[in-house]
């Protein structure tokens, strides 16, 4: 047995690709004649670049093939609260300093704010709202104040000091920090009418509720219905905010829609089974509202698009109800915790340590996050941790789009190569085999088609024929257009090969032996052409992928929202995206670049293996 | 030779006619009605039957009801128009751009100048880099520099040009702020003289030229290198060296001249490719060129404009292939093109 040489990984690859006998070969075996195919395979696999290319390509290929099962593409998917998020996984990482001494938590869109028992504020998650505005930049007056209560909204945080002063920071450009004159008066007086018991913040508006039942609402009046009908003022026990409305629990235990949206809207229509029942808690997601009746039953109404109305069976009456953007979390009397509703970011998958009878002190929910603070001060979290590769301008997960886009790009590339090869082989075969006028005509056509500028022609075909097609048909159209425009190389190759092979001695010999023409062509000539065909197919595959992506990039390929590696980069050529949202172009560009480089490496290696003369170049 | 060129010119004319007919009929697949478009502003002022009459009259005037081949021949300028004159492509009338509300010829002038200007710049730049690089790599085949160049050029032709553009934009425009990110002139600039204007334009097209050059390095360097290696492995090189000629003479006088033949084909073919490929570059950098115009025309369904640009592309490619064949004969006297 020969001494082991080289790094163990290299040995592994050698064994995997060449078989284990390679290491113990002696000179006798060295002399053995190999079949041309074995020589080719040996030449092919013995090159570093080829191995790197093969491994890289297969990894990407598997990723793109299997990935869509895990990252399922939803074409209608978009979320305005998750736009342009950078790659992160820290949206639920409660800071170390806060662990064990949590006094209060407010969970916002993609961030959390926490107060420890020493009165220090901490923030975590993605706190940046715009380039200039950052939730983590807590104003000094807030740091110095003794906070008693706070709430986090989409892009702003509201906090209440023990002197009755309200603070707002984050995005305050849309009146998030503009208090009404009555509020200012009450704040200044800081008497019984300003004994705040509940503070809420939502999409650009906030609410503060005083113990005497007075509700104060402020913020961007253009997005939200934040006016209060007079007859309810002074009679309110709890408030819950959706993203554009709010509802109130009145002191007599009934639920009322106290805003000015008309009676017909889904929010104003309080369900009939809540009439005459005492309600003890309310909560609201972005577009639904829920109430807990005195006997612990939950009633949900509003525009339930994410399964908010699929209320599970509870093992005990509900004690308290919390709501995120698309989901509800209920804390039951027996200590169990149940979540339901939209589960896209696993926000309803309650961990086992929390689900059944744990010693929970309090539960907090953000848009997509849930925090359960235990009696011993530890925190259990479930929900959206962050996006591995960030999100795009419409709040879609970039990883999902890259995986699914890769599948589309590769499929288009592969099918158009197959179309091009079929056309090329047939026409090239006819030209090479029959020669004469057919040859002349086909080669002239090939010359014209090959000479035309590729991208403008593909654009025109896609625009003119594709204007009346739906997205799926357009995808097929692109495949056909790419195939029809890129067959000339293959055609020329096949023709030249057949012409050359026909004059070879083995063909003459075969003819002399009386073998039929057809057998000569298919059994003798074709195998010699196939290896070269394979090379051109591999290289064409990369070219077709490049062309498809260029077309999609220009907007004449596969239309949005279907992702491809090309149209993921469509919006990337402006300075804001290039500079601030680098992940939106770096990741698609990187995986696409690596993929085409790998394919070209394989193709080059294949060509060198098939045609050893070219390796000398 | 003259006879051959004549023959080829005839061939070009035939191919051009076929191509233009194909393109013209392709556009006629699109359901548009120029007569209705023309009448649309007056529609409200007219009564229904009045409108119908005017519409039919206009259709007749525009010749919309004639068969496709007649309309095509009118468009190309070989058939009498409805007013009895020849007024088509051959007479210099490329149609009317709906998007710009001007004649296509006027619309195309500036962008065509820009495109040719940019392409010539980038062609000179890339040839200036690739040919010496390719020769150097071929002479020093297998050395470290050669293998590094092989890898880098592989990157160059594997990565799509718009990704290269994005990377360069990020580095040169965003990080280091050397070049402006897009456009062909400083917004609102007033130039004292033509020279200043020229310099400003050069400054603006520098980055696109760099990107185009970089994008085309890969293929061309490899081509020059392999042609040169082929030439260097010939017997006459060994003879030349055996005669005791200096290495420089062997490489540049003996080998390079012979390597030139395949290179010339590729240079011309690739010069044509630049015209097509510049669609992406011009869009990415918002340059006012043919590619951008073409893209705008397609997006806005301004098909007379698009058709005219398409004809330009076809002509460029046809004349290019003629030039390739003629230059074969000029570079290599052994090739008798007029056989």
- Determine the most extensive contact between two protein chains: A-B, 45 and 54 residues
Number of domains of chain B: 2
Oligomer: heterodimer
CATH topology of the domain at 48-75 and 396-616 in chain A: MetI-like fold
Strand content of chain A: 15-25%
Shape of chain B: globular
Q: Which CATH first-tier class of the domain at 48-75 and 396-616 in chain A would you pick?
A: Mainly Alpha
Can you tell me the residue ranges of chain B where pLDDT is under 50 for at least 5 consecutive residues? Answer: none
How large, in whole angstroms, is the Cα Rg of chain B? 26 Å
Largest sheet: spatial strand order of chain B: 1-2
3D structure, described in words:
The model of chain A has no long low-confidence stretch (mean pLDDT 82). In chain A, a hairpin with a 3-residue loop joins strand 19 (360-365) and strand 20 (369-374). In chain A, helix 8 (398-434) packs parallel to helix 11, helix 8 runs antiparallel to helix 14 and helix 9 (436-451) packs antiparallel against helix 12 (488-502). Helices cover 40% and strands 19% of the residues of chain A. Chain A has a domain at 48-75 and 396-616: MetI-like (MetI-like fold, Orthogonal Bundle), CATH 1.10.3720. Chain A has helices at 8-18, 27-31, 36-45, 48-70, 140-144, 181-189, 352-355, 398-434, 436-451, 454-466, 471-485, 488-502, 505-512, 517-554, 575-579, 583-610, 612-615; strands at 102-107, 111-116, 121-125, 147-152, 156-161, 166-170, 196-201, 205-210, 215-219, 236-241, 246-250, 255-256, 279-284, 288-293, 298-302, 318-323, 327-332, 337-341, 360-365, 369-374, 379-383. In chain A, the strands form seven sheets. Chain A has a three-stranded antiparallel β-sheet, with no helix packed on it. Chain A has a three-stranded antiparallel β-sheet with strand order 4-5-6, with no helix packed on it. With 617 residues, chain A is α+β, with helices and mostly antiparallel strands. The longest helix of chain A has 38 residues, at 517-554. By secondary structure, chain B is mainly alpha-helical. Chain B folds into two domains: 2-104, no CATH class; 109-331, MetI-like (MetI-like fold, Orthogonal Bundle), CATH 1.10.3720. A two-stranded antiparallel ribbon of chain B has the order 1-2. In chain B, a hairpin with a 4-residue loop joins strand 1 (96-97) and strand 2 (102-103). Chain B is globular, with a radius of gyration of 26 Å.
